[in-house]
Amino acid sequence: MRPRLLVVSLACVAGVLGVAACSSDSGGTAESATSVPRSAAVTVAPGQQHPRTAPGTTLDFGASASLPADAYRAGGSTALYTVTGITQGKDVPSAQTRGGTAYFVYVTVTSLAQGPAPAPKVLGLAGSADGRTAALTLPPSTSLKDCANPKPPETMRRGESYATCLVAYADEGQKLTQVIYWADTTGDDSLDYKQAPVVWRNPADVASSSPAPPAG
């Protein structure tokens, strides 16, 4: 049986991404996936510089991080990744959740290329319960109403975006509230996102979990 909450190698994930879609059943969760925006309007000003976002950076949902456009070329070109939220999924086949819970991760990807270039990839993004450990996160293997995963354009120019959705799988009793970028494909410590992921979270969740100030 596959574990659902684990840090897997990028090569392993890439292999799974090539698996053909499988049949669906009526299993799923009761919560509707409409509580977070499914896309963001991202503007890239002419000449605007976007330094690579440092490992360990924490962002609110809706903020953009400048990250490798291809996780296998961590020192290459970058793109903007805007995670708008994560929410409990719906209508995901029970054969895939295996007693756990599926979550939908919504992300908008924006090219920073100066000319036509291959569309940036989303490999390296994952749902997370603790902001460090990656849950198994993949494109939906079946057509899901609330988690569209359209094929990105073949090429994109600077400022062009596409919105997509990934499915993160939590073990039974776990709740995924954060999204991380955790790819580590080089020996360069400055690019070691696996050791120190970029984290997106809901600031309201952080506030609600903070201890109340002492009275008086």
UniProtKB/TrEMBL annotation:
Highest taxon listed in the record's lineage: Bacteria
Keyword Signal in record: yes
Signal peptide range: 1-20
Stated name of the protein: Lipoprotein
Organism: Gordonia jacobaea
Keywords assigned: Signal
